[in-house]
Amino acid sequence: MTDFDMNKNLSAVMNACPARLVCLITACLFIVGASWGQAVPRRPLPIIDVHVHAMKVNPSFAVEMCPWFLRDMPGGDPNQQMRAFLNAECATPLQPAKSDQEMQAAVVDAMQRLNMTIVAYGDPQILRNWKKAAPGRVIAGIGVSSPNDMSVKAFTDSLSSGFYEVMGEVAPQYQGLSPSDMSLDGYFAAAEKLNIPVGIHMGTGGNGMANIGQSKYRASLGSPFLLEDMLARHPKLKLWVMHAGYPMIDQMIALMGANAYVYVDLAGFIWSYPQAEIHAYLKRLVQAGFGKRIMYGTDLLIWPKLFETSISIIENADYLSFDQKRDIMFNNAVRFFRLDASKFK
Ligand SMILES: [Zn+2]
User: Fold this and answer.
1) What's 288's domain CATH number?
2) Of 109, 60, 69, whose CA–CA distance to 87 is shortest?
3) Do residue 110 and residue 179 come from a single domain?
4) Which residues fall in a coiled-coil region (predicted)?
5) Which pTM value belongs to this model?
6) What confidence tens digit (pLDDT) does each residue in 226-277 have?
7) In 10 A of CB 51, how many CB atoms?
8) 119 alpha carbon to ligand 1 midpoint, in Å?
């Protein structure tokens, strides 16, 4: 009902009433009834999640997961079986999607319900399906982590097609490579030339990453200072450090201080490490003056409810103001990815 309709109906009620007092009461009830009737739920404020993995669901790896499972990193013995990487011993473990269809339906539902846009990378077919199912809500990225993934020419052709608007997730750390390794330089040069923002994984991968199937992984290659040479070679590159370089907070702050266009995302560590640790890290970044350079990201894998789990960390951060939360959830990503804020209302 529009304001005009309501005013018209209201004067009709007033004119038809013989006794003015009764009229007034009737009119008041009408107004209350009309505003109740109008109680259309307001659309939530827009969110941009800059770190989503669009992957094929493997039903045999679809296991339950307890958020913040890395609060306990027990000692072990190489001669004994390692404890499971994930932990499902909590009251309400998150449920995995069991098929690609189930995952897509849950992701699309979450984007519409939460008024959310995602930057997603991974399987090209899954990305295409998600984009089609939620027009305007999926920004596709393509990652290169080693020269063995694809040639610079193939990468440049993919970027030029227009389908991909972001380079990510780039994760040389898992390949035993520094992000400044010259074997990756041609890819960053292509992204710089085409004005494509780049997201690089710098951080941890969970407990015992080097012991369980990622033998090339090196914690030291997550050092944010390793980005400096590459940044110096590509001064126009727009770079965001994924996982905020956790736990290398001092290096992260020094790098952002020296490089004014570097941003971070909060993906992954906000739902895996102990909550006091997450808040201490985030608070330190804000306290150091970088509240305008932090972007919200989930690192969504196969548990659709991870969106809400991760958002709750920001919502419950009592040391952040409303404006600081809006910067993290939306405004900073709009600025970083050069988006048009008016298209997200
Ligand atoms: Zn990552």
Assistant:
1) 3.20.20.140
2) 69
3) yes
4) none
5) 0.87
6) 999 999 999 999 999 999 999 999 999 999 999 999 999 999 999 999 999 9
7) 27
8) 13
